[in-house]
Design brief:
The complex is a heterodimer. By secondary structure, chain A is of the alpha/beta class. Chain A has helices at 40-47, 69-75, 91-102, 105-118, 134-146, 164-179, 191-194, 214-222, 236-241, 276-292; strands at residues 2-11, 14-24, 29-33, 55-60, 63-64, 76-79, 152-156, 183-188, 199-204, 207-212, 226-230, 245-251, 254-259, 269-271. In chain A, a hairpin with a 2-residue loop joins strand 12 and strand 13. In chain B, strand 4, helix 6 and strand 5 form a beta-alpha-beta unit. Classes of the chains: A alpha/beta, B alpha/beta. Chains A and B meet through helix 2, strand 6 and helix 3 of A and helix 8 of B.
Chain lengths: 296, 373
């Protein structure tokens, strides 16, 4: 559905993306996980036909983004970081406007009704979008992105600024879309959200550090570092100074530690399961070390 | 107080950080002062004059000379027949015309009064009033000199030259007749430019543009779609003003209504282009408003809307040729008051078409560049 091969993008001398490759299959919720500035939004904009890649090839729904950007735009749904709804239009008017950009006039009404129903927006249909709470407005933004029945859905940080309950709802809706056969590419910097993705790509400094299911990524991290918990009063700074300790931070009544595989610091250690955040720390450290070493 | 200062300080910092606003805040008053100080001049000079001289003798030549004194009048058209004089005013080649009948010298010698036909372009009552006063003064001065010679010779005194005045186009000197075409021009400028610029900038401010460019809608479709309603609104408002002027103030529409509508439409298209152009330069709605001011001021002052272009220094008269509203207002006044047709309007149509085409090209190229981040 989405296929990216060696895509790079430069803005002047700044390399926003560097040789990115990935594959999103039908019905998959594929997560792009990375800190701000990692290149997530740039990649989404390339895949939605807005931005041309400097190098490499990408196709969406079987269409080349460079040669058929208009076809790509018609096949996808896109929700940007900012909640992109017109606050002075009603929920229904927002949906109608978006649907009319894609669909034949006759198909607009049924598409809007279907979407209102599926997203539970029916009772708010005549309400101004500006009067909705943040969670509902985000729900509307998501509804707008799928109102025309796209085969591929790009969501750029769809839950930024939402409370946990709203986030959960939005993610349920995202998975519903995927179950209906849509390929979803979603960016996030929330690690807990990343756990909800079918597969993930870790993006850092414009490069893909690793790709896989959350479990695969954790296994990969475990093969490269030891994750542990220690009940200790020592400060993180003191612990990090210990040989073999890669990272340390307070957690509960003790410290979480990431250790080099063979390290044995003088602490009472209990093994811990790595979270995706740990995976990220391990893999980014590795990448930084590689970059510092001049290896390319 | 310290809290007030804190807010004020924050505000000043924000204004300074705005790249466009400070320049406009300083530039606009300066521009207004210059325009008011130099360009706006209610005292006329160099009034374009058409003369048919049927006598070509000492008296008639003295009259033409008298008129040329102090640069009040400027002979721009020498008519070959009496009919050519009002025609020259119709065609805009002159604004005041004189028809001096045959045998001026004999008439004066015979102590009779010579009636001189005077035609004044009355579309601007201010202008007509001043032109008439200047004419009367010139005639009076010449009369005085002629009489002085005769009185010494001990002859009876009849004023040798009497004007017979014809005010063209606006015989009752109604200000509304002059103002309403200008007001239409002003409304078309302000409404379209401001509304267009604001609506596009608002789309950008709300980051909606980013979403829209990822849909099948093309940038030009967005702009066209946004601009069309304002085109309609502005056109309807202009028609409303036109209708009000016609039925309430009795402003005539001597010429073809079709020409009138076409002129307005052509001007609107250009103004919308200016609006889009401003929207590509302005990042916030405040900047867009100020940008519109910056465009509207020269339009108000240099288009001949209220202030006669004939009264301006040569430099500003030259600049006024670059103000599109000048052609619109000229054309509107021509059609409404003088009933002119294509033979007079072609220049206005040409100028407005060039303006529209240029501005639209510029606006669309800038607009596209802005989107191609």
């Amino acid at each position: 559905m989405v296929s990216v091969e060696g895509v790079s993008r430069r803005f002047g001398s700044f390399r926003a993306l560097e040789g990115v490759s990935l594959e999103v299959h039908p019905g998959e919720v594929f997560g792009l996980l990375g800190p701000n500035g990692a290149g997530k939004t740039t990649l989404i904009r390339i895949l939605s036909g807005v931005l041309e890649p400097s190098e490499g090839r990408a196709s969406v729904a079987g269409l080349d983004v460079r040669r058929q950007p208009d076809g790509v735009k018609a096949a996808i749904g896109y929700a940007t970081q900012e909640v992109s709804v017109y606050r002075d239009l009603t929920v229904r008017e927002n949906l109608e406007f978006r649907a009319r950009l894609y669909l034949e006039p006759k198909a607009v009404r049924p598409a809007v009704e279907r979407t209102l129903g599926r997203f539970g927006l029916g009772e708010f249909a005549e309400k101004l979008a500006g009067a909705l709470s943040g969670g509902w407005r985000q729900r509307l933004a998501l509804a707008q992105a799928v109102v025309h029945g796209p085969r591929v859905l790009f969501l750029d940080e769809p839950t930024t600024g939402l409370d946990p309950v709203s986030r959960r709802t939005i993610w349920d809706l995202i998975h519903e879309e995927a179950r209906a056969g849509v390929s979803v590419l979603v960016t996030t910097h929330y690690m807990d959200e990343a756990e909800r993705c079918t597969r993930l790509a870790l993006l850092y400094g414009g490069r893909v550090l690793a790709t896989g299911t959350p479990a695969e990524l954790k296994a990969l991290a475990q093969s490269q570092a030891r994750f542990a918990f220690a009940r200790t009063q020592a400060t993180p700074e003191a612990l990090r100074a210990q040989p073999g300790v890669l990272e340390a931070w307070p957690s509960g009544d003790g410290m979480r530690l990431i250790l080099e595989p063979g390290a044995h610091p003088p602490l009472e250690l209990a093994p811990a399961m790595p979270s995706l955040e740990d995976v990220f720390v391990v893999l980014t450290r590795q990448s930084a070390a590689l970059l510092a070493g001049g290896a390319r | 107080m310290t809290r007030v200062l804190a807010v004020a300080h924050k505000e000043i910092t924000q204004i300074r950080r705005d790249h466009v606003l400070p320049r406009l805040i300083v530039g606009l008053p300066v521009m207004m002062m210059l325009l008011f100080g130099y360009a706006i001049n209610f005292t006329l000079s160099g009034i374009r004059l058409s003369v048919y001289d049927g006598s070509a003798d000492r008296v008639s030549q003295a009259l033409v000379q008298e008129l040329g004194k102090d640069d009040k009048f400027r002979l721009t058209h020498a008519a070959r027949s009496p009919q050519e004089v009002p025609e020259a005013i119709d065609e805009g080649r002159a604004r005041v015309g004189l028809v001096i009948p045959e045998g001026a010298l004999q008439t004066v010698r015979q102590d009779k009064s010579l009636v001189i036909e005077v035609y004044v372009d009355g579309s601007d009552p201010n202008f007509a009033f001043q032109a008439q006063a200047a004419l009367r003064k010139a005639l009076g001065d010449l009369n005085g000199r002629l009489l002085a010679g005769k009185a010494l010779a001990g002859q009876a005194v009849t004023p040798p030259l009497t004007p017979s005045l014809h005010t063209l186009y606006n015989p009752d000197n109604k200000t509304a007749w002059f103002m309403i075409p200008g007001i239409i021009g002003l409304i078309l400028t302000q409404f379209t430019v401001l509304l267009t610029a604001l609506s596009i900038v608002r789309e950008g401010e709300s980051r909606m543009m980013e979403t829209l460019i990822a849909t099948p809608v093309k940038p030009y479709e967005v702009v066209l779609g946004k601009v069309l309603p304002y085109l309609g609104i502005s056109f309807v408002v202009a028609l409303l003003v036109l209708a009000l002027g016609h039925w309430v103030f009795g402003v005539p529409v001597q010429g073809n209504l079709g020409w009138l509508l076409l002129l307005m439409l052509l001007f609107l298209v250009g103004s919308l282009g200016v609006g889009v152009l401003i929207s590509t330069l302005a990042r916030t709605q405040v900047q867009a408003v100020f940008g519109t001011f910056a465009y509207a001021f020269p339009t108000i002052f240099l288009s001949g809307f209220v202030f006669p272009i004939d009264g301006m220094p040569a430099l500003f008269q030259a600049v006024s040729y670059a103000v599109p509203a000048r052609y619109l207002i000229e054309g509107l006044r021509g059609v409404m008051l003088r009933g002119v047709g294509w033979e007079f309007l072609w220049l206005d149509f040409l100028a407005l078409s060039v303006f529209g085409a240029l501005v639209l090209m510029l606006a669309s190229s800038r607009f596209r560049k802005q989107l191609a981040v």
